[in-house]
Amino acid sequence: MSFPDLAPALKAAMPELRGRLLANEPMAPLTWFRVGGPAQLLFTPADEDDLAYFLAHLAADMPVLTVGVGSNLIVRDGGVPGVVIRLSPRGFGEARAEGDTVRAGAAALDKRVAEVAAAAHLGGLEFFHGIPGTIGGALRMNAGANGGETRDVLVEATGVTRAGKVRSFSNADMGFSYRHCGIDSAVIFTAALFRGRLGEAGAIRARMADVQNHRETAQPVRAKTGGSTFKNPDGASAWKLIDAAGCRALRVGGAQVSEMHCNFLINTGEATAADIENLGEEVRRRVKDHSGVELQWEIKRVGIARR
Length: 307
Description:
single chain; Uridine Diphospho-n-acetylenolpyruvylglucosamine Reductase, domain 2; 3 domains; four-stranded mixed sheet
């Protein structure tokens, strides 16, 4: 499937645009599941100013979706209409320590932020080492692992509104809750400032090693997967509910519930996005029938089904 090519008209309307704008660009290679259709337009801004310029000149009714490294994303097989914005490490990937803080661009890998903090003898950010995504996603989802969450360490975030205005948001402004932040979903986060605490380098590195070891021994990190599929319900673990409902190793087409950790779905090699999403919905149905708990998706599902 392909969409009408809007790139020439947009480029003509934005003569000062410096970023890369591509039409009908495949999205599957940009996601960990390696499935899904194309983006009608894929825009990679050069920097924050370029992003603000683009949004300020983009029609207000044009759909916009922002993605990171695609670690918790299902792009449906029909693709994504409108504009997909992907922040690149070149313009948004810097991470550096400043005293007891770490300043990071939204495209910086969470793991990289933990490494920069450790090199500066800053503890408290070790949990980022176990999150397979970027800082932009961590801000949007209040990402957490191993007992830590983004809201525990964030000082402030910077983002660009749909109208192209750059704004700062304090920790209190973010309205954090479990795997959620309260900032308008149209805001595109571009950077963040985190505060750590000075500590002993060996102890910090040991905690990071524990985080990495737990991830590698408990999760299918080398499979085509999207991380934790469902949010943990209050007082319960999603994987235990899924296991109790008999879903471990359950398959739909080329998609399978991981035998190693059954809150992970896997593309065994030939899955479509529909296979993965349908498998997730079947898991939700069986858990609801077995325990009465209605699991909520943690993985973001975007785009349209193949016609």
